[in-house]
Amino acid sequence: MNKLLIMKTSQIFACALLTVSLVLLGVSSTGCTTVQVTDDTSGHYRLGELESFAGRDFVVVHAAVVNAFKDQGLFLTKDEAQAQEAELMARDSTDTAITVKLKADSPGRTSVKIRYSRTGDLAQSQKLYQAIEKRF
After folding, report:
1. What's the whole-model pTM score?
2. Which CATH number fits the domain 33-134, given the four candidates 1.20.140.150, 3.40.50.720, 3.40.190.290, 3.30.310.80?
């Protein structure tokens, strides 16, 4: 009887250890990747969101985003802008949601975060950033 109890206890311990290992592996694999956004600009892609910094004032970047949406054939659905930050949302022809968050980092520097689709699409995010940069 004691052998059976010891075997069951060790099986439970092994399952618990495996579960903890898988959880830790999942948490550690959600890291940040450095990506090339344009020839001169790099950014970070994390959890489906591309972040880069534009070397322009907030107002210039905001206008560039609105115009890039038009250039890319995206339909602007939300534009909530404040003095130093904004959230713009759009939809593409397949009704995919696109979110761009802007935040003034310092004079002449603005954080640009792009999420293309709910789960994120790096290639489409890079393409949109390139369209934004063309409008500077």
Report:
1. 0.78
2. 3.30.310.80
**Nearest to residue 90, comparing CAs of 105, 79, 106, 102?**
79
Three-state secondary structure along 9-70?
Answer: HHHHHHHHHHHHHHHHHHHHCCCCEEEECCCCCEEEEECCEEEEEECCCHHHHHHHHHHHHH
Max intra-chain CA distance, the chain: 77
127 Cβ contact list (under 8 Å, min separation 6): 72
For position 23, what pLDDT does the model report?
46
Radius of gyration of the chain (CA): 22
Residues 64, 68, 69, 70, Cα dihedral to 10°: 110
One-letter identity of residue 42: S
pLDDT along the chain (136 residues), means of 10: 56 53 47 92 97 97 98 98 97 98 96 97 97 96
